[in-house]
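@channel sequence for tomorrow's demo:
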Amino acid sequence: MDRRDPITTARGVGPVLGRRLAAAGCRRIADLLAHLPLRYEDRRTLGRLPGAEDDAKESVQPGPLTVVARLEDLRRPVFLKGRAGRRRFSRVEAVARDGAARVGVVWFNRPYLARQLEEGVPYLLHGPLRRRGGDGPWQLSNPSVERIGGEEPDGGGLRPVYGRIGEVPPSRVARLVADAIRGLRDTSGPEWIEEWLPREERTKHRLPRLAEALTEVHSPSRETSIEDLNARRSPAHARLAYGEFLLQQLQLAAARRQRRRSGKPHRYHADAAAWTAATGLLPFRLTGGQERVLGEIADDLGRKEPMLRLVQGDVGSGKTVLAALSCLIAARSDLQSALMAPTELLAEQHFVSLARLLGSRMAIALVTSSQRAASDGGAVEERIADGGIDLVVGTHALIEERTRFARLGLAVIDEQHRFGVVQRQSLAGKGFRPDLLVMTATPIPRSLALTVYGDLDVSILDEMPPGRRQIETRVTTDGGMEEAVEEVRRRLESGGRAYVVFPLIDGGEGAAAGLPSLMESGPKWARALAAPSGIVHGRLGRQERDETMGSFADGSIQVLLATTVIEVGVDVPEATAMVILGAERFGLAQLHQLRGRIGRGTDPALGEPLCIAIAGEPSPEAERRLEVFAASTDGFRIAEEDMRQRGPGEVLGTRQAGLPRFRFGDLARDWSWLVAARQDAAELLDRLTDPENDALRRQLGRRIPGLLS
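structure tokens (generated this afternoon):
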């Protein structure tokens, strides 16, 4: 028996069960062992059932109970209809007897137990003991049940509780895992799986060997802390998480090293004086954070290897200015630059601001799909291909085959989380090993940055431009709309401007859920605010949208009724108020991005910036999300909490092709192990050729064939 054998070779797995497991992704014995327990039950101490003498006392407390008892009065399952639209559920009842004490037992949705259980036979029961109705008779609710024979057990130790695998129930999964580990140990001994983690790293972090760790998580020893097991902080869990992180970080370290070895064919004609001259063209002074990050970019561009840098900065921290200066230096070095944005609106706004800032010093062009639809675009594309355009700003249209560059030296990607890794690589592929600058205004949790962008150097802009004011954030329900209207009107009377954000353009499916739409509720808000207003959403044509945005920017209209199309790139310093309707439907990062559209000016006469999030009927999860939103304007804290609540996949979005899937490690819980793995990987890469690391090389080779050759 070997862990790489098909699952059908495991004890108790026939063709039918094998197909069910395989359909759920469990095709090998190793896949079964990677299905870790959801939690653990402490059955080390046997208790007793409460008797009649306990009813008048408070000596018995509700909670988990492990007890050996015989079953009586076992009843056939009762099927009950659920609420409208929900399927019916079942209930099996019995009485558990422990000496003279008798307690009711109930199992929900396990009708098969009525056929399997026998009266008068001793069973080990473990489950919550509580009073029915709060003060009624004691009852064991949905306990696990295990038939025993011979001598009565001393409790049963620490028992793993599994989730189901596809259609295979948890109890069956538990038996399969236990049988698999027993079979592997009988076949290969204690070291039934190859140990690939080097001794030095195991010793440094006091981690068990792999076989010991896998055995411990599935069959923990009695001395292990139940709290550590359930929190996945046990040494065995740490070994699995760290090992998984280390393999991934070694992969990234190897990829970084490979790219660093290949030099770039172009050179920048830029010394300290050139950068100083470039910054002298700005109508403002850079912040200390901008100067620090600009220095890091300048060092990268001056090297022989291509730059691979991610710049993270909260909304309004000034990332685009750094990109503009880098593109100017590239143009003065006779190199082309490309800036790719995720939406046409953001691309157009970048084009306008960059043309205003640098248009007199370099040739700038805009390339988007709608621009091509409006004209053949041939003249622009020809000028890009022959090198007549210094900076090309655009959307995904930049990576289409028809867009060709003569000498692309610098590729800039804005709002990277909106793209996948493939798009990032496609833009870089338009040149011959160009320098790559990736920017995001959506703060990324540190653990995600180390995994998804681990092949990039990371810079953080943690300083806002001077004069930027703190935004007050309030969360209310539909009943708070009148107060919200009054607050916004006060700011409009002071000369400020306001956004009202809707979750939908028109009714559709969302209307049935009571969500407000721009088309239906927008006119009501326009009348209530009694100020000139305009509408912006994703279905508007470019000309109409530009005219409305221009009117809002110059003050012809004071209220912009919009969808989340304004989430990024909109910069109107006079905007001091925002109302977000249906706020319970937005993610934390999106709420934070929307809020970043206000408070960008420095004129105190406009009033203090205010964001009001109005929720309809939020779920408990949405309530927690809105509480965090109201309590903090720190984008990085919000990003960490967003990941804890929704998970890394949801934070980055399903389009992020670079997000690794971890089976053992959790990016929020195991942050310290991820940091340790990253630090160790950089040093371990130099020792991979040592003979004692043959097993590690084989393990890496299975994950990344050819990368280490």
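heads up for whoever presents: The CA atoms of residues 207 and 375 lie 64 Å apart.
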